[in-house]
Design a protein that fits this description.
Radius of gyration: 19 Å
Strand content: 35-45%
CATH topology: Alpha-Beta Plaits
Number of strands: 8
CATH architecture: 2-Layer Sandwich
CATH class: Alpha Beta
Structural class: alpha+beta
Shape: elongated
Distance between the termini: 25 Å
Strand order of the largest sheet: 1-2-6-3
Length: 114
């Protein structure tokens, strides 16, 4: 799936806005998207490092109109945890010397909080 097809829109409620302080962002996603698809899409679209993805299928609500009952469609929600502190990568080079390399990642998603 293309990243733009996976993420439908951010979900902004009081609970999700409070969780943004811990680096947790909530999105409405495509029902066919897997956790790996969601992780890759968020990393590509927002330039952040995703550490954890939790997905929930929200069942549709039972409604009544003109005396007839119907159910709204089910949808999928994903709670994505991003890395708020980026640690530099350390590895040994050929001579045994330790080399540190840091990747450039954002520590918050600014577009989702609008």
């Amino acid at each position: 799936m293309v990243a733009e097809e996976v993420i439908i829109r951010p979900i902004i409620t009081e609970k999700s806005a409070g969780a943004q302080a811990q680096g947790k962002y909530t999105f409405k996603v495509n029902k066919k998207a897997t956790k790996v698809d969601v992780k890759m899409a968020v990393e590509k679209l927002f330039g952040v490092k995703v550490t954890n993805v939790n997905t929930i299928v929200v069942k549709g609500a039972l409604k009544t109109r003109n005396g007839r009952r119907y159910r709204t469609s089910d949808w999928k929600k994903a709670v994505v945890t991003i890395a708020t502190e980026i640690k530099p990568l350390a590895y040994k080079s050929k001579g045994g010397k330790e080399v540190k390399a840091s990747k450039k990642f954002n520590t918050e998603i600014k577009e989702a909080s609008m």
